[in-house]
Amino acid sequence: MHIGDIKLDSPIISMIEYDAVDLSERKLSNDELTMLKLDDYDSTGKKLWLNIHGVHDAALIKKIGDLFHLHPLVQEDILNTEQRPKIDEFDAYVFLEARSFYYHEASMSVSSEQISLVLGRNFLLTFQERPTGIFEPIRERLRASRAHIRELGVDYLAYSLLDSIVDQYFKVLEEVSDASEALEELLLHSPTNTELYSIHQLKHVSIELRRAVWPLREVINSLARNENDFFKPATMPYLRDVYDHTINFIESLESIRDSLSGMMDIYMASVSNRVNLEVRALTVVAMLFMPATLIAGIFGMNFHEMPWLADKDGFWWAMGLMVLIALVMVMIFWRRQWLGSKT
Q1: Pair 158, 152: CB distance under 8 Å
Q2: Mind listing the pLDDT tens digit for each residue in 220-231?
Q3: How many angstroms separate the CA atoms of 214 and 224, rounded?
Q4: All domains of the chain, ordered by start, with CATH?
Q5: Is the dihedral of CA 125, 68, 215, 129 positive or negative?
Q6: What is the pLDDT of residue 282?
Q7: What is the pLDDT of residues 76-119, one digit of tens each?
Q8: How far is CA 286 from CA 237, 276, 282, 325, 338, in A?
Q9: Which sign, positive or negative, has the C-alpha torsion 193, 255, 99, 50?
Q10: Which end of the chain is more exposed for a tag (fewer CB within 10 A), N or C?
């Protein structure tokens, strides 16, 4: 049973057969798929790369599983597109799953898709939810005559595909880093609730990337141990290089996560500072009117004898006193820099 979203109307099966001299590439129908024979590749020395776009067809996955003798649990894992990266090793093949990510700038979010790989001695199966072009550079390298990749085995091809997936992570990381830097500039000038929402979105993106890359690091580390000799000695340095890339990615991602946490502190400090300024402004206004209120309250008392009550200019004397006191307080506030934006 397929678990996940259906992202393609019908599966697309593409096959590449190659060796150091020749390469053939074509699309396969379901009937042509059953005509494949693994023994032919053992005798001719050719390598097979079979890629399937669209993994919602359980009958097709079962047919491929029967053809390449895949364990039923492996077939179930291919159909379940909501799993974390993992690896399972068998005598005849090694099965691993990874996730590819794509960043959406408008919504500050990422979408991910599952990629399953089955590496045999002379064949490689890849299962993708839909065509994304992530493996197209590898196909172009295979199509080139006298390409170094064609002289090597399917283990090197599997490394190249893993390297493409990790490179895609770095593209997403660069886009997230650019969004983080732009967000930090906004926070320093005019923080709003929109920036707060953006911080939460980027933190969610970093969490999703971390959940995918940490298990992938263990997957690549297991491949690098090469306990069943699926990778030739010449390919091992390249595989270790991919492992180093995943470590580098994790360290860079942790740096961005720390930066986002710092942005949250900057936002809270900016909001607190803005509230303090507003409260200070209101306090200054209230203090300016307090002497006037006091004087007005005194002259409003019901005594028969009070200064300036009988004077025809008493009202203006009282108003002048209020203004004078207010001006003196304004001068004091100005010297203390309470009337500007400085703290």
Answers
A1: no
A2: 888 888 777 888
A3: 16
A4: 12-269 (3.30.460.20), 279-335 (1.20.58.340)
A5: positive
A6: 77
A7: 999 998 888 999 989 889 999 999 999 888 888 888 899 999 99
A8: 73, 15, 6, 13, 13
A9: positive
A10: N
